[in-house]
Amino acid sequence: MATQHPPLPAATRRRRFRLGIALLVSCVALVAWIADLSVSLPMHYETEGWRLAWTGYDVAELGALATTAYCALRDRWALIPASVVTATLLLCDAWFDMALSSGTDDFLISLATALLVEIPTATVLLLVAWRLTRRLRDKATDAVQPGAATLDVALRDAAFGAELRAILDGPSIATLAMIGTDGEPHSRVVGLHREGDALLLSIVAPRQPSSDLAKDAQVSVSVFDLTNPRTAVEIRGIARLLADGERPGPVALAREAEPTPTPLARTSEPPELLDPADPSGIRLVARLFPTAITRLAS
């Protein structure tokens, strides 16, 4: 499963929308320009810059190939854009070679070079870029799986582990912060419960969320120690909603808010969260897969 990224901020989405509109307008203008060139350009044209144009292009192609080779030998992730740029230059080279040699004795040589060298090399480079992109995606996905064990590592740290357990297991207030579907930040008080090295969140929502937490969401949970208000921890990670059958033991909560307290209520949730005034309010349970834990102290 690919990593689900939070929605972009509203301002960023507006800028990208304006960019998309500008590019579409450019496409329309380019179509008109192509139509004009197809009827206005001469069949034959003489220029004194022919040698400079081709040698300059080949120098750029050489630089791209050398950069791609360096990135491959040094195992650099810049190999992805370098491969795409080099493949593009090779395909353009093949096109211009065949188009400009059409009707001449050099056409067969240009065709053979394109089919046997330039197009296969460009195909391999694009395949390399695609596979490396998938590897990056899979690496990001693995980072948020239960095996990431960020919480487990923190708990094994003798000093920090004891302090973290005391905060998570004792009286505390937890707030969940995330980016909503509207691109704006949202936060709410939630219940937090630790079962071994797993963290479970109890969330009371006015309705079934359509997309905020329907898929894996990147969130930040701040836990404030009520016995020492100057101490808190921030846990960043991925929140994944649990289905009814996936909810273990004491946190197998009904969809509706319950009148009886549960272990998740130990975090001193406000009464309105434990018994929401909105009768359509429902309780959701999410598992938090930590990717980073930070001690906060004033």
From TrEMBL:
InterPro entries with a match to the protein in the record: Pyridox_Oxase_N, Split_barrel_FMN-bd
Presence of the UniProt keyword Transmembrane in the record: yes
Domain Pyridoxamine 5'-phosphate oxidase N-terminal: 162-248
Gene3D superfamilies, alphabetized: Electron Transport, Fmn-binding Protein, Chain A
Transmembrane regions listed in the UniProt entry: 21-41, 108-130
Domain of life: Bacteria
Region Disordered, residue ranges: 253-277
Chain coiled-coil ranges: none
Annotated keywords: Membrane, Transmembrane, Transmembrane helix
Name of the protein this chain belongs to: Pyridoxamine 5'-phosphate oxidase-related FMN-binding protein
Organism: Pseudofrankia inefficax (strain DSM 45817 / CECT 9037 / DDB 130130 / EuI1c)
